[in-house]
């Protein structure tokens, strides 16, 4: 359980980085509009900076959003079903999420290595995009870990449901 708390704490920190990045990106865009209004020219590279900051915003917040169950789901549909069926559906959904996020981890790792070896940079400012691929990879890894925790918790809930029904049957018999 301590590992889960550590995972949740780190995910919360990553989410705070995402929130700070949103503020920085908004400040940059406001400054760009003001400079463009005054001088008639935009700040060089603003578009590129905003583009890479979006990676930070999205991928640093994924795990925390899943912890808070903020992603799109069919909760209304699933909770209207019997507990056994909804429990099984949650396990299947989380198992699929673990598989999909594992594929994303592998793909983002391969992409990160490719960018590292190719020394890919942005077009205007010529700064390396490799650090942002690291951020993408870290965000997907934490999402993967949160999905694993969710799946384990779903298994625990199912065990509790089946355990209760088994004890009721024993009492009735």
Walk me through the structure.
- The structure is a single chain.
- The chain is mainly alpha-helical and 173 residues long.
- The protein has one domain.
- Helices cover 83% and strands 0% of the residues.
- The chain has helices at 2-39, 46-67, 75-79, 83-118, 130-172.
- Helix 1 packs antiparallel against helix 2, helix 1 runs antiparallel to helix 5 and helix 2 packs parallel to helix 5.
- The longest helix is centred in the last third of the chain and has 43 residues, at 130-172.
- It is elongated, with a radius of gyration of 22 Å.
- The model has no long low-confidence stretch (mean pLDDT 92).
What labels would you give this structure?
173 residues, mainly alpha, elongated, 0% strand
């Amino acid at each position: 359980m301590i590992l889960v708390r550590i995972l949740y704490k780190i995910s919360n920190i990553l989410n705070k980085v995402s929130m700070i990045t949103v503020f920085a990106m908004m400040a940059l865009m406001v400054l760009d509009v003001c400079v463009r209004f005054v001088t008639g020219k935009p700040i060089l590279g603003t578009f590129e900076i905003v583009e890479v900051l979006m990676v930070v915003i999205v991928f640093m917040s994924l795990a925390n959003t899943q912890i808070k169950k903020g992603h799109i789901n069919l909760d209304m549909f699933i909770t209207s079903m019997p507990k056994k069926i909804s429990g099984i559906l949650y396990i299947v959904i989380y198992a699929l999420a673990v598989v999909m996020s594992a594929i994303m981890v592998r793909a983002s790792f391969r992409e990160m290595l490719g960018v590292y070896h190719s020394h890919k940079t942005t077009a205007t400012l010529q700064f390396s995009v490799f650090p942002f691929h690291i951020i993408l990879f870290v965000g997907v890894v934490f999402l993967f870990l949160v999905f694993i925790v969710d799946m384990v918790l779903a298994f625990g809930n199912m065990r509790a449901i089946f355990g209760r029904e088994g004890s009721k049957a024993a009492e009735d018999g």
